Amino acid sequence: MTLSLQAVESVPDSAIQVRLFSFASRHAERFGYHFGPGAEGDVRQAAGTAASAINERVKQENMPEKRELYVRQTEGAFEFLVERMIFEALTNKQIHPGPPGIIGEQTFERARALLCPCWPICTA
What is the largest CA-CA distance in the chain? Predict the structure, then answer.
C-alpha cells in the first residue's frame, strides 16, 4: 500500500500510522506470530510516533515528495523491530514465558532498546 505516487502536500499522521502498524502486523504474521495486547499498543504508539516524525521532517524540509521514501525506510525499521521481537520471544524465556506465536510487550522493549536511536521510530 502506498500513500500516493504524486507528492501530496498533507497526509494525516493517522494514515501513516495505520500503514506502519499494518505493515508490522503482516510482517509478524509471515513468521506465524501476532502481537499480544501490550505489544500491540506499543507498536501502535511507535507507529504513531514515527508518523508524526515523518510528517514533521517533510514539513521542515518542505519536500512532500520525500514522504513515501521516509515511510518505506520506516517500514524497513519495523521489519527489524518485529524480527528482533520474534528472536527475543524464541530465545529469552525470562522475558517471554508465554504461549508460542505471541510476541509481547517485554519483547518490544528489548527490541526497541537495540533499535534506538533509529529515526523515526525513536525520536527522544
Answer: 47
